[in-house]
Amino acid sequence: MDIDLASLTPRDRYKLLCGVVIPRPIAWVTTCNPDGSTNLAPFSFFNVFGADPATVVLGLEHHPDGRPKDTTANIDRTGEFVVHILTPDLNEIMVESAAQYAPGESETEALGLATEPAARVAPPRLCAAPVALECRKTVGLSLSPERCILVGEALSLTARDGLIDLDTCHVNWGDALPTARLFADRYARLVESDRLTIPTRPERPDS
Ligand SMILES: Cc1cc2nc3c(=O)[nH]c(=O)nc-3n(C[C@H](O)[C@H](O)[C@H](O)COP(=O)(O)O)c2cc1C
């Protein structure tokens, strides 16, 4: 089967792409609303795209009426956001935070999620999340009237005690690996992994 993606509606393209490019990590993002309260929403068009600089990318769609989401508007205005990585125990409340709250309404307050001040940016960190990346916007790319790609630099990484061995820079998630998003309302738990080492090839003699 060969599908010409350009011939599909955006909705069908979304369903197919989100169904085949899985799993995706989830960025649970705090930003500052204009009144200083905290906005929170999850985004799975997300990943890190390099370490020098530490590059974070979010794919932000606008509302059907063309209005940017609160996260987008807040990052455009302040240039600052905090990405949290979550574990499956937080899935339910993460999904609740994606509901349509009134513009400016604080999801952390509505959901009773405790926060603590971040060290380098104004949006606070979620106490419940095992990892937080404090980020500053680098550039936003408006790809269409409906969506933009936001590139940011992660300035710091905060991790719960015991997660990171700083001597070796090893991250030990134990049995609680981060949530993996599949498609629609499906989420996966990462339970098994294989170890594979890239082989070293013998050097080819100069010809
Ligand atoms: C797991 C999950 C992943 C999501 N990923 C995205 C995404 O990548 N881009 C996007 O625009 N919306 C995404 N959403 C929808 C937003 O979270 C939702 O529109 C939210 O209400 C936006 O909140 P805000 O207006 O406070 O920024 C996702 C929702 C869920 C539950």
In short:
The protein is α+β, with helices and mostly antiparallel strands. The protein is built from four helices and 13 strands.
Word description of this protein:
This protein is of the alpha+beta class and 207 residues long. Helices cover 15% and strands 34% of the residues. The protein contains four helices and 13 strands. It has helices at residues 10-20, 70-78, 91-96, 107-111; strands at 27-32, 38-43, 46-51, 54-61, 80-85, 115-116, 125-126, 131-144, 147-159, 164-165, 170-171, 180-181, 187-188. The strands form four sheets. Strands 2-1-5-8-9-4-3 form a seven-stranded antiparallel β-sheet. A two-stranded antiparallel ribbon has the order 6-7. A hairpin with a 2-residue loop joins strand 3 (46-51) and strand 4 (54-61). The longest helix has 11 residues, at 10-20. The model has no long low-confidence stretch (mean pLDDT 96). The structure holds flavin mononucleotide (FMN). Flavin mononucleotide is lined by residues 26, 39, 41-45, 59-61, 69-71, 95, 98, 100, 181.
